[in-house]
Write a structure and sequence with these properties.
Blueprint lengths: L6 H4 E2 L4 E5 L14 E5 H15 L3 H14 L4 H13 L3 H14 L4 H13 L3 H14 L4 H12 L8 H7 L3
Antiparallel strand pairs: 1-2, 2-3
């Protein structure tokens, strides 16, 4: 949610749509190379309002804005990611996990969503499930060193998975 731009840079009033950063990690928010997701202006306005509240650490208000955006574009990976972040900041980890899962369902290569999902599953003491989601993540995005590293470190801390951690961690240095 710290990826807001002013509305004039993302709004296309003739089409009734706006674009928001997709948080793919490939470039910084606001850069010219940043990937964008086109959403209706009404959803965009709610995302921008949510971002303002999120950046002001008013997570309850941000959550409400992101919920309104998600009602308009329920399958938006970006909106669901932002919604997950607001839920997580509000200590609603199960809801955050569900929002991150929805983001991944709609963009299977969404690296940040896998990482955030795993963190929230850990907070819910669902560590094995976090590992399984990270395994799905490295299958979907095999060149993501961060996902491999996260998977390896979580496997090291799991007695059940510890034996498979070394090959995973070696993958991060190759």
């Amino acid at each position: 949610p710290s990826s807001t731009q002013n509305s004039s840079s993302g709004t296309n009033s003739s089409s009734g749509n706006s674009s928001v950063p997709t948080n793919t990690g490939s470039s910084s928010p606001g850069s010219k190379n940043e990937a964008r997701e086109v959403i209706p202006n009404a959803a965009y306005d709610n995302v921008m309002a949510g971002d303002q509240q999120y950046n002001a650490k008013n997570y309850a208000a941000a959550l409400e804005s992101y919920k309104r955006a998600a009602e308009i574009v329920p399958n938006s990976p970006t909106v669901n990611f932002y919604l997950g972040d607001a839920y997580a900041k509000s200590d609603k980890y199960a809801e955050a996990a569900a929002a991150y899962q929805k983001a991944i369902e709609n963009r299977p290569t969404f690296v940040e969503a896998y990482t955030a999902l795993a963190g929230n599953l850990d907070r819910l003491n669902r560590k094995d499930e976090a590992i399984e989601w990270l395994k799905k993540g490295v299958s979907a995005v095999p060149d993501s060193v961060g996902l491999w590293r996260d998977l390896g470190s979580r496997m090291l801390s799991s007695p059940k998975e510890r034996g498979g951690a070394l090959p995973i961690l070696q993958h991060t240095v190759e």
